[in-house]
């Protein structure tokens, strides 16, 4: 079926294309009787204005691009939910791009969003390589850009950042103060968020003169992370040097560790304490319920959305780093 055009509306209502445009955009006065005729023609023809063309004329498209390395890890979906809760009521539509944590895909999707003339872009956990290359700084000089987490030292971009350092320290101190000395860190592969957690862990272990033990799976952001974590933790629990506690870099990995403990017959938390990171819904419905570090994911997304809107509105163009506190949530593990 052929889509109705503005020419069709003009013909049916017996007015010029310019008059139809004025009725649609409400930018010039039009006689009431003429406006009613045009609106009836629009309704009859089910005419939908070309919002992109309209936006290009007015120098905006009312669209926001969001780049995420994962759609399976509930951390990212909660952040996106927070972004949408702010952006949608303001009349914006979002384009969601899934990069799968690939630096090349990230740049390709960034360029595609820019070609589509989005009004702004929010990147969640951007690749460190693209940050250090200067590519994101260059983009931010011409396109409103907000980064959620990621490497930020000396980088001239707008950031909203979880205070992961204090979150890791709080979790480790809790374990240490509860007589845990053999503490392992369970992390995923290539990700700055995992890197920074390991740096904090290494510093803590060194300060307390404890033995370091880092367990590493390939990818911590997909569903395979649960099984990969389970297998790795099972091996550790069957060894002669069993950990007394495991700090996991996200809740998916922590669920895998819980499953491993069940299979190995190791009671949690009596013989093994497990702490996750994120406070996603799975931490509340697992058995036992998972202790975890709350990263306030929805609020993280909301702060990023509020920041990008201020930049797009030219209310505040200075680069800022906004930090969001984390909090250890103690449950049953």
UniProtKB/TrEMBL annotation:
Transcription regulation found in the keyword field: yes
GO molecular function, one term: DNA-binding transcription factor activity
Coiled coil: none
Gene3D superfamilies, per the entry: 3.40.50.2300, lambda repressor-like DNA-binding domains
Pfam families from the UniProt entry: LacI, Peripla_BP_3
Domain HTH lacI-type: start-end pairs: 4-58
InterPro entries named in the record: HTH_LacI, LacI/GalR-like_sensor, Lambda_DNA-bd_dom_sf, Peripla_BP_I
SUPFAM superfamilies: lambda repressor-like DNA-binding domains (SSF47413), Periplasmic binding protein-like I (SSF53822)
Keywords per UniProt: DNA-binding, Transcription, Transcription regulation
Keyword set includes Transcription regulation: yes
PANTHER family: HTH-TYPE TRANSCRIPTIONAL REGULATOR GALS (PTHR30146:SF109), LACI-RELATED TRANSCRIPTIONAL REPRESSOR (PTHR30146)
Name this polypeptide is given: LacI family transcriptional regulator
The organism of origin for this protein: Thiospirochaeta perfilievii
Taxon lineage: Bacteria, Pseudomonadati, Spirochaetota, Spirochaetia, Spirochaetales
């Amino acid at each position: 079926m052929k889509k109705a055009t503005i020419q069709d509306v003009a013909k049916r209502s017996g007015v010029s294309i310019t008059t139809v445009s004025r009725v649609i955009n409400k930018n010039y006065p039009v006689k009431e009787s003429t406006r009613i005729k045009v609106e009836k023609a629009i309704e009859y023809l089910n005419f939908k204005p070309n919002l992109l063309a309209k936006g290009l004329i007015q120098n905006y498209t009312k669209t926001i691009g969001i780049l995420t390395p994962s759609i399976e890890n509930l951390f990212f979906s909660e952040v996106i939910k927070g972004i949408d809760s702010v952006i949608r009521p303001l009349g914006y539509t979002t384009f969601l791009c899934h990069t799968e944590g690939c630096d090349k895909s990230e740049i390709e999707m960034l360029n595609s969003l820019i070609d589509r003339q989005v009004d702004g872009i929010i990147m969640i956990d951007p690749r460190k390589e693209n940050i250090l290359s200067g590519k994101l700084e260059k983009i931010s000089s011409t396109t409103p850009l907000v980064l959620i987490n990621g490497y930020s030292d000396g980088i001239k971009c707008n950031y909203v950042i979880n205070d992961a350092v204090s979150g890791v320290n709080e979790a480790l101190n809790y374990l240490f103060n509860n007589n845990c000395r053999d503490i392992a860190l369970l992390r995923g592969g290539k990700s700055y968020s995992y890197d920074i957690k390991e740096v904090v862990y290494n510093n803590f272990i060194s300060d307390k003169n404890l033995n370091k033990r880092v367990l590493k799976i390939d990818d911590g952001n997909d569903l395979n992370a649960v099984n990969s974590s389970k297998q790795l933790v099972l091996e550790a629990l069957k060894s002669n040097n069993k950990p007394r506690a495991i700090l996991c870099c996200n809740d998916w990995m922590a669920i895998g560790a819980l499953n491993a403990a069940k299979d190995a017959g190791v009671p949690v938390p009596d013989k093994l304490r497990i702490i996750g990171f994120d406070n996603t819904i799975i931490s509340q419905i697992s058995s036992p319920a998972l202790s975890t570090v709350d990263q306030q994911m929805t609020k993280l997304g909301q702060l990023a959305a509020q920041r990008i809107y201020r930049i797009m509105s030219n209310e505040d163009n200075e680069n800022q780093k906004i930090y969001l506190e984390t909090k250890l949530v103690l449950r049953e593990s």
